Amino acid sequence: LHVEKAKLPDILKRMTKAVKENGTIYVSFKYGDFEGMKDGRYFTYLTEERFGELVKEIPELRIGKLWVSGDVRAGRGDEMWLNMILGKDDVGYCKIV
């Protein structure tokens, strides 16, 4: 969420390498196409399509579940989040193409 999109493939590769076989990785990003500084911090927002592009670079990474949810914090009900449960096994996971 707080790194440049160009750095995400390397980060996801390292996370995939670090997780045990049949392990699970949870990631979430603010939903959308924005990338840049906001409120003094760097943000990368993602959509299903933009995340799918990143995952294509990591053949052993699988997306088990992907969903969009609303922000539950007070005053942020209009903000959406892209949530993913990832893994590196083939059982129960499907690859986004």
Low-confidence segments, given as residue ranges, are 91-97
How many beta strands in the DSSP annotation?
5
Percentage of residues in helical conformation: 10-25%
Major sheet: arrangement of strands:
1-5-4
Percent strand: 25-35%
Oligomeric status: single chain
Radius of gyration: 14 Å
Distance between the termini: 22 Å
Tell me, rounded to a whole number, the average pLDDT.
88
Number of helices: 2
The SSE order reads HEEEHEE
What order do the helices and strands come in, and which of them pair?
Layout: H1 8-18, E1 24-30, E2 35-38, E3 41-44, H2 48-55, E4 62-70, E5 80-87
Antiparallel strand pairs: 1-5, 2-3, 4-5
